[in-house]
Amino acid sequence: MPYYGYYGGYGDFLANNIYCILLIPVLLLSLWAQAQVSGNFKRYSGVANRRRLTGAQAAEAVLRAHGVYDVAIRPCSGSLTDHYDPRDNSISLSENVYNSTSIAAVGVAAHEAGHAVQYAENYGPVRLRTAIIPA
Questions:
Q1: Quick check: is 112 catalytic?
Q2: Domain boundaries in the chain?
Q3: Cβ-based neighbour number of residue 97 at 10 Å
């Protein structure tokens, strides 16, 4: 009789491996999404925006348009390491976004500023996410 888990039953084998069965599609989807983001960022990094705004200026414009004035915008190292940190209320933009005038940089910066606006407006799904993160 083949060994299928601690108790040896087929049901235990299935219960122990259902996690792996569900994890594979999620992993493949996340790899595909990351490839799409990276590819589009690379494609549009060479296209300048008409207003010649840098990523930092675009993030600041989004914040000001929504009446948010207490969020710091700072550069960080890496590529596509951009993020909003609600703990210290700051937006960190990677070097290739912070000073760039490309439409890719403006899009990434505006996206991160959108997160800051969501927190400032106490957006419901963000509150739920904040409650779940410690778990």
A1: yes
A2: 1-44, 48-132
A3: 29
Are the C-beta atoms of residues 47 and 58 closer than 8 Å to each other? Answer: no
Asked if 65 and 116 touch (Cβ cutoff 8 Å), the reply is: no
pTM: 0.78
DSSP string, 60-126: HHHHHHTT----EEEEESSSS--EEETTTTEEEEEHHHHS--BHHHHHHHHHHHHHHHHHHTT-HHH
* Assigned fold of 48-132: Zincin-like (3.30.2010)
Question: Residue 100: how many CB atoms within 10 A of its CB?
Answer: 23
- Please, what sign has the CA dihedral across residues 88, 93, 95, 99? negative
Instruction: Measure CA 3 to chain center.
Output: 42
Q: Which of 60, 95, 112, 121 is catalytic?
A: 112
pLDDT tens-digit readout, 39-89: 999 999 999 999 999 999 999 999 999 999 999 999 999 988 999 999 899
User: How far is it, in rounded angstroms, from Cα 70 to Cα 87?
Assistant: 13
Element holding 26 (H helix, E strand): helix 10-44
